Amino acid sequence: MAEAGSLPTGFGELEVLAVGVVLLVEALAGLSLNSLTVLSFCTSPELRTPSHLLVLSLALADSGVSLNTLTGATSSLLRCGCRGQGRSLCPCLRRRWPYGSGGCQAHGFQGFAAALASICSSAAVAWGRYHHYCTRSRLAWSTAGSLVLFVWLSSAFWAALPLLGWGHYDYEPLGTCCSLGYPRGDRNSTSFLFIMAFFNFLLPLFITLTSYRLMEQKLRRTGPPQVNTTLPARTLLLGWGPYALLHLCAALAGTALIPPRLQVVPALIAKMVPTVNAVNYALGSGIWQCLSLQRSGWDSAQRAARVLR
């Protein structure tokens, strides 16, 4: 991480500011859209079904990812807060993570747990949709609740392991966020990376791909499916895949050959996933429309009440 009063290695002042602005836009977009999804569930009784509970879990996880991103955006922009009278004489107020080592560990744990919950919740939604469309049987509340509980407990378990010594959290190349650290070339961190990636990325990706592929084969005779069967798997692969690939390269060959600017890109892509998920799962499934219809019903009721008066 950069020393106080100096820029991170490989970055200019404008680049630090640009990353902060991108993170801020991603955070606000993800928080706004996923909060709208959560609000829809809270205010629309027709959405309180076991299947929609899985989507709610995904929205909460993505909100956690966006909150983590907002912290990183704040840190990046604090780097560029200046004092002094002239721009040329205006040094940045902060050149380091502003919340200390303990804050870094907490930030890394929260962000990693939310990211794992988001990935696994996407797989849970895929399985839930396969169960609904292909078995023609209703998903039970007990099954959905147990699945959501398992997703969050599993995510918290894997996120806690670096705090206990298997793997580690560290500063990202820009020094404004904390996340899962690159493998240090030892058996400890490398084994954690590969085992964690298998259970929390490859396995959920396989479940998502298989579920939607079986849905397509099953429903092809009756017409196109009512849900998008390609975007969820692509979002997992293209959103989190570059981040996983970066850590894999770091485990096999180190990060010396990867430019610092390039190391930032996978994180920026991954933090866009909450926005994509909100649009796909909420807008594509008609969840936000339920909120709009309920709002219209409230307005109609209020107008009718005024007329009666």
From TrEMBL:
It holds the Pfam family 7tm_1. Keywords: Chromophore, Disulfide bond, G-protein coupled receptor, Membrane, Photoreceptor protein, Receptor, Retinal protein, Sensory transduction, Transducer, Transmembrane, Transmembrane helix, Vision. SUPFAM superfamilies: Family A G protein-coupled receptor-like. InterPro entries: GPCR_opsins (IPR050125), GPCR_Rhodpsn (IPR000276), GPCR_Rhodpsn_7TM (IPR017452), Retinal_BS (IPR027430), RPE_GPCR (IPR001793). Residues 33-309 form the G-protein coupled receptors family 1 profile domain. It is a multi-pass membrane protein. It is found in: Membrane. It comes from the Eukaryota. GO terms for biological process: phototransduction; visual perception. The keyword Transmembrane helix applies. GO terms for cellular component: membrane. Its main location: membrane. CDD domains: 7tmA_Retinal_GPR (cd15072). The chain crosses the membrane at residues 16-41, 139-161, 192-215, 236-258. GO terms for molecular function: G protein-coupled receptor activity; photoreceptor activity. PANTHER family: OPSIN (PTHR24240). Receptor for all-trans- and 11-cis-retinal. Binds preferentially to the former and may catalyze the isomerization of the chromophore by a retinochrome-like mechanism. This is RPE-retinal G protein-coupled receptor. It comes from Pipistrellus kuhlii.
